[in-house]
Amino acid sequence: MRRRFPASQIVPVTLSALLASAWLCSGVLAQNSLPAASAEDRAEARAIFKQLIEINTTDTPLGNVTTATAAMQKRFLDAGFPAADVHLLGPDARKQNLVVRFRAGGTPTEKPVLFLCHMDVVEALRSDWSTDPFQFVEKDGYYYGRGTQDMKNSDAALVETFLRLHREGYKPKRDLILALTADEEGGKFNGAEWLVREHRELVDAAYVINPDAGGIELDHGRAVVADVEATEKVYSDFQITATNRGGHSSLPRPDNAIYELTAALNKLAAFAFPFEMNEVTRTYFKNLAAQETGQTQADIRAVLASPPDLAAAARLGVEPSFNANFRTTCVATRLSAGHANNALPQTAQAIVNCRIFPGHSPEEIRKQLIGIFGDDKLSVKFVSDAGVVSDTAPDRKAMAPPAPIPEVFAPLTRLTQAIWPGTPVTPVMENGASDSIYFAQAGIPSYGYSAIALERDDERAHGRDERLPVDSFWKSLDFFHSFLKAEGKSTE
Description:
Layout: H1 15-23, H2 39-53, H3 65-78, E1 86-89, E2 97-102, E3 113-118, E4 137-139, E5 142-144, H4 152-167, E6 176-181, H5 191-198, H6 200-203, E7 207-210, E8 215-219, E9 222-232, E10 234-243, E11 247-248, H7 257-270, H8 279-289, H9 294-304, H10 310-316, H11 320-326, E12 329-337, E13 343-344, E14 347-356, H12 362-373, E15 378-383, E16 389-390, H13 406-419, E17 425-430, H14 436-441, E18 446-448, E19 453-455, E20 467-469, H15 470-488
Parallel strand pairs: 3-6, 3-7, 7-18, 8-19, 9-17
Antiparallel strand pairs: 1-2, 2-6, 4-5, 5-20, 8-9, 10-14, 10-15, 11-13, 12-14, 15-16
Helix pairs in contact: 2-4, 4-15, 8-9, 9-10, 13-15
């Protein structure tokens, strides 16, 4: 039986020695190539990818996760997976999750490996895009569509990998589980949280691989670093409200609700939360420094010094992904105000989205926002994932990094080196948020890695014209096929 790491044992203080050994993989393994998917396998993977992109799975009246999970259920049943191992279930008819179990060839002596993938996507407006976001478009070496980066690419790759291994007659020594879930991006029916709470027996595992995080950072086509999520920020939304007596628009006053709100948001835009580092981000930048050159390399080394050079941090922080690794970030994402074109607004409201650096809680940041705004006429309230507004926020802090298990990182490193030779594998702090937190809270280690290679300046998840390099999809497909075989340890 493999050792499990209960939450009480996953503590940052033990990480230093582990980082020095298991995480710091510098790419010195022999170069080799992975078995490539056949033309037939690629055609099926592309068809699955296209099918998923063209099913609207947003948390809107037009979206339906069940349409997508039911379509994948049909593929598994048609392929011959036993109905008892293909579970479509959830607390809402439109938010059904799919859990598929690939059975071991004999009596397993080790707990399963769970691959966790969410199926929902963020809303996308046709008017914002140059293509229809819910049409799968291939052009200029890219696949376009909502979810091509986040994260229907990995959904499709893992569905295809399970189907391919089944066709090949593969017999793993341990069960492999694929969970395709709802509402990771928001909504009332988070599938990962619900499965852990209500059907732990279906998703209980030795550890989780979550492709919603991690991957290969490219710099003009050069693989710089392979990121594996070790911890993540805490996602929080806050509702900022300004109220005023209003009045006739022919008699403008500087104290109307819109002016009060925008003054507060301008203060936030000019504010930088304090510079911070932890063992995960420090290790990430140490590995990155060996790959960079020139001013960027010098600045990274300067921020790693004691004390850190804050001028160097400011220069690096011009790059959003670096800045997000250095601090809590908060930004206004939605605005609404007024009730008539010819009236001063009586109410103006904004949603401020924060990604909170580990060690701080949403309630701590809510109070800090109040101080930044410095206006007691504003209210600052917390908004839950289900949209419930409350006067205070949770005290929950980020998940602690799990210990790097050799059975995960040995094949992950070897296979990464086979595709991207010489690329260091390093822990990272996920600047967004993922469903890994629910498994970490349940004592199941979770590691974020997608094997997707993206240019640093082409991060389009949640944004306009989301796209994925075609070649990146094929490489991730080859990676997962070899990785699942390594994790399953065939009985053949």
